[in-house]
Amino acid sequence: MKSINKILIFFLILMLPVSFLLSLSIGPYNKVSIYQVIRFILGKKLSSVYVDIINYRLMRTVAALVLGIGLSSSGLTLQYTLKNPLADPYLLGISSGAIFGVTIAIFFGYYSFYQLYVIALLGALSSLGFILLISTIFKSSSTTIIIAGISLSYLLNGITTIYMIRLGPKIPSILFWLFGSVAFTTLNTLEKSSILVIISLFFMFYYWKAINTLMLGEDVAKSLGVNVSYIRIISVIFSSISTAALVAMAGPVGFIGLAAPWMARLIVGSNFGKALLMSLLTGSLLAIFSDILARLIIYPSEAPLTAITSIFGAPVLIYLTLKYKGRL
Amino acid sequence: MKSVILRDVSFSIKEKEIIKNISFELEEGETLAILGPNGVGKTTLLKIIAGLIKPTKGEVLLYNNSPEKSRKYISYLPANPNIDQYANVEDILLAMLYGKDKRFIVRNEDINKIRNWYFKLLERNYLKTSFNNLSSGEQRLVLLSGCFAREPKIILLDEPTAFLDITNQAKILKFIRDMSIKMNITVIFTMHEIYYANIANKVLLMKDGRIKSYGKPSDVLKKEIIDDVYKIDVMEIPFDDKKMFFPSIF
To answer: What pLDDT does residue A92 have?
Structure first.
């Protein structure tokens, strides 16, 4: 690895605690200085107003961290196993399932965050079930899986649109969730989603060398002794579970699942293990900084996270792609 | 010692027989060239030996094991492997060590091993370059070095000389022959250049999924046999003790 990349990686690792400090101090309601945040971290006494604000921001920062880790690792895994450089976690209709579930639930009068969380999770997982059914019936080639996912998305989006029109004046209540944001994450939903993300990550790391061989094409991977269909199904299952948990928690936050894996690959190369580790870092930084910007950009109100991840991430991705053209 | 044994191997898809009753045996360290027209079943036969397809009849034994149990000592290279074009050469070569390396970590000795084999075939260092920036000749040489880095006992190559210039064709064929002798590796490859088959110890000429002729190159490569298999009138041009064959097109 070139030394400039080592410096870049070191810098990015350093940025993680910096992003936490900034995220805890910046935001509406009340200004909290970095000095006070550091006092809070060291366990010094602080007025209760500050403690409440910092605790709330701490939770949403952790939520952004988990969101970044989960989406980027899922995106990377799907890019390898479906052999599609443009694969992102929503390609398989996971988010459409969740949006469909939530819209129907609101239509029938369910409103509490937790009810909607469970319904979104179930909606997303039934999308996964459908994809698995299709891919086992049709012998799981990566193209059939992608086509099944895209068709399912369109189908569900169509039905969702009709129900949304019928919702009429109740639309704003789901709009913010639809845009994607960690502002409404609760400790309860964060906890449950984190567990699912961590389980999924465990499997991605456990099978990293087998997933890595898929870069050689199906036939070569098989000849090396990799059970390709099994690895593909396992990868689809766990990246979808991770994505489902995150969509339920924060809505369909876009672009992280596509951009963060590519940023990681451009920095460390295509080795799946290295890229997976690196994508945890790029994903969490992208999510946390985007969340900070979301709080600042139309201060004192808040912008949706997807808007920021896209505006902020797209130029970075284009810049990296041009800079590392030869290696890409 | 026998390294490859095929006994009465047949393969069919929906009643249509693609491979019919193929049997042959190879000694350790022998090289076999499989020849035959397009669509005759060369690639399918190679995939059966590699254990990617199960024969519908008969059996394949590699050192008395089924191909599925022999993954650690086989290298297989398809004619058009679907390699990730964005991956760099070193990552590709490391991935080709799967099953011969440690389960979760990449050791320095693995990196040294792939570098060592890489520089036996290529002069310039493209290890950190992405695969799509290499010429097709360089790509083939890279993948071939990966096959050898696995330190296999049997190497299966589907058309290793296709799409290459004569310099690279000669380089690859000589390398295969030299390494096969030096390291006692059994190599089976398919090809379309009839003259090159002379480099192998044995030649298998296929017609309609069957063996038309099998044996030493000088016994198999004869005008009347080749005329029959390729259904075209070929010119026979003697060269040293070998013969070249060309279709008469002028």
So the answer is: 87
